[in-house]
Design a protein that fits this description.
This protein is of the alpha+beta class. The chain folds into two domains: 46 residues; 86 residues, PH-domain like (Roll), CATH 2.30.29. It has four helices and six strands. The strands form two sheets. Strands 1-2-3 form a three-stranded antiparallel sheet, with no helix packed on it. A three-stranded antiparallel sheet has the order 4-5-6, with helices on one face. Strand 2 and strand 3 form a beta hairpin. Helix 1 packs antiparallel against helix 2. The longest helix is centred in the N-terminal third of the chain and has 23 residues. It is elongated. The chain starts with a helix and ends with a helix.
Length: 137
């Protein structure tokens, strides 16, 4: 809110200065700039509310993606056949993909590359531990 007030104040003062020297249409463009920045912040905050949960049990891996609107999408995988894939070396646009029986799901697209690697390693470690014979007893 403070940033928007500062941007609006600077734009208003600059617009008034232009208006006083005879370039009155510039005031409208400064107002338009403030409106576009405000809408960009609103869209960014809305998309920041997307989140995913990943739950691993002995018989399934459940991924839930919750959208800002509250809509929930669910995918279920059998963990024994699940593959966790991420590009090596990791780049900014590397994707974390879960695949099993012809189904593929990209997860964690909102994470940084290092966070995606961390999730992939944690998930792979949990799957490896789940597949050990001592876990099945």
């Amino acid at each position: 809110m403070l940033l928007m007030v500062a941007i609006a104040s600077v734009s208003f003062v600059a617009g008034i200065i232009f208006m006083l020297v005879g370039a009155w249409p510039v005031l409208g463009f400064f107002g338009l700039d403030v409106a576009v920045i405000y809408l960009a912040f609103k869209a960014n905050y809305r998309w920041a509310r997307i989140y995913e949960t990943v739950r691993l049990t002995s018989d399934s891996l459940l991924v839930e993606r919750i959208r800002p609107s509250g809509k929930v999408q669910r995918w279920r995988f059998q963990p024994y056949w699940l593959k966790v894939q991420i590009d090596q070396p990791v780049k900014h646009d590397s994707q974390l993909v879960l695949s099993s029986h012809g189904k593929r799901l990209k997860i964690g697209s909102f994470l940084s590359p290092d966070e995606r690697v961390e999730v992939a390693n944690a998930l792979q470690d949990a799957l490896t531990k789940l597949h050990r014979p001592e876990h099945l007893r």
